[in-house]
Amino acid sequence: MKLSDLLREIQYNRLVLPKDEVEILGVNIDSRQVQEGDMFIAVKGTQTDGHAYIDSAIEKGAKAIVCENIPEKQDPGTAYVVVKDAQYVTGRVATIFYGNPSQKMKLVGVTGTNGKTTIATLLYELFMAMGHKCGLLSTVCNYINGEAYPSTHTTPDPISLNRLLAEMVKAGCEYAFMEVSSHSLAQDRVGGLEFAGGIFTNLTRDHMDFHETMENYLKAKKSFFDNLPRNAFAITNLDDKNGPVMVQNCKGDVKSYSTRTICDYKSRLVETHLDGMILEFNNREFSTLLTGRFNISNLLAIYGAAVELGKEPEEVLRVMSTLRPVSGRFEALHAPNGVSAIVDYAHTPDALKNVLSTINDVLRGRGNIITVVGAGGNRDKGKRPIMATEAVKGSNRVILTSDNPRFEEPQDIINDMLAGLNDEQKKNVISIVDRKEAIRTAFALAQKGDVILVAGKGHEDYQEIKGVKHHFDDKEIIREIFKA
After folding, report:
1. What is the mean pLDDT of residues 163-186?
2. pTM for this predicted structure
């Protein structure tokens, strides 16, 4: 693509051109990945400033540089585009370079603290089961018509994102479903994309290490709905106090879902078990393999989005009844001795509270709950004591252990969690740093009819320690114990 075509819709402050026409063969924000003919965008990130790598990018063959501050010494064979905000420009440049892929299919974004992965993944599986070619961008994995592409972030950087969307268009996808993280909204990673719809799940404490305040966190989420076009739909959760706030300034067609109040998509719980529920949605009854009141909300959002996308309610419910839980999201495993295990990604206080509430609803005092939980290192420390408190409130026994300690000492993280408990609460808590040993201990303590919740990692198959990812899969460990 000619540089002049790429810049047609981009506002810039200054343009320095070489003598010859500049042909752009690729776009990059990582100087290490720059190839001959690329445009390099120097973004000021949270860790590094891309301006420090302009010379390196030129050495590797970059033919155009987008920057906020032009270097004093300029290469005569390179074009320089000076902009006010390189981060903002990245998404728009990527969208143009890859041919505006989001305009060529129906793209639905899901944002909120909890439930994003379940909703996006099950929407993808629902529409695939209905015979459509679809794409998925999620925390667990990205998919194009069933083919997996590894996922490194909940929402990729703008260039990777548009590249994946372009691949989806090339593969004939009619729909794409994606998780939209608060980080990506604050960093404008979805800038330039056109959404057919958006879903708000809930807002509870998370990512305070990045956003610093709940107000900043809310503003990041809300910006997604503020920017939806008039022809898009927005579905918000009225069971969350922030649900109405999210869509205050939304120009799209606003719809709502709730398990408690008047709304567009309403539910009633008929029956619940560890392996499923019978529900009633808008006076239509169906069964699901998912469990938990939080999953009723997730399923309502899925149902609402499918109907807003033009699907018949009866057909949506018929196919929804066949959908299985997402990997590591309230995933039940049953031992031969009558003990059950639930593996869940719950890594926020609210998510942990919801999962434990669901298990208690099912057990109704007919068995004990033993919770194995930790907290991630180098992340929001303020939620650690709150998570320990929620674990103790909802469990009979709690084992505090290591999660992904990253560059912190696991025992220090556990101590932060213990700080939220009083002496009486600590009587039912033990600390075991080794996560595998902690899970084994939970099973040694459990008796027939008890449920063990292993929380925090869910689908993850690794433990990150001192910058190294070591293979570790909660489900593998549990199955080993079952065999033994």
Report:
1. 92
2. 0.82
- pLDDT score, position 206: 56
Task: Identify the CA nearest to 288 among candidates 234, 345, 261, 326.
Answer: 326
Q: Which domain does 118 fall in, by range?
A: 101-320
Amino acid code (one letter) for 370: I
132, 231: one domain: yes
92-106: pLDDT as tens digits: 999 999 999 999 999
Both 71 and 143 in one domain: the answer is no
Residue 210 pLDDT = 55
Question: Roughly what angle, to the nearest 10 degrees, separates helices 293-308 and 116-129?
Answer: 50
**449: CATH:** 3.90.190.20
- The answer to whether the CB of 2 falls within 8 A of the CB of 37 is no
For residue 243, pLDDT over 80 is answered with: yes
pLDDT of residue 154: 61
**For residue 94, how far is the Cα from the chain centroid?**
22
Beta bridge partners of 15: 81
CA angle 483, 337, 372 (to 5 degrees): 75
Residue 204 has pLDDT above 90, yes or no: no
> CA-CA distance, 381 to 388, in Å (whole number)?
12
Q: Which of 3-12, 39-48, 201-210 has the lowest mean pLDDT?
A: 201-210
Q: Which residues pair with 371 in a beta bridge?
A: 398, 453
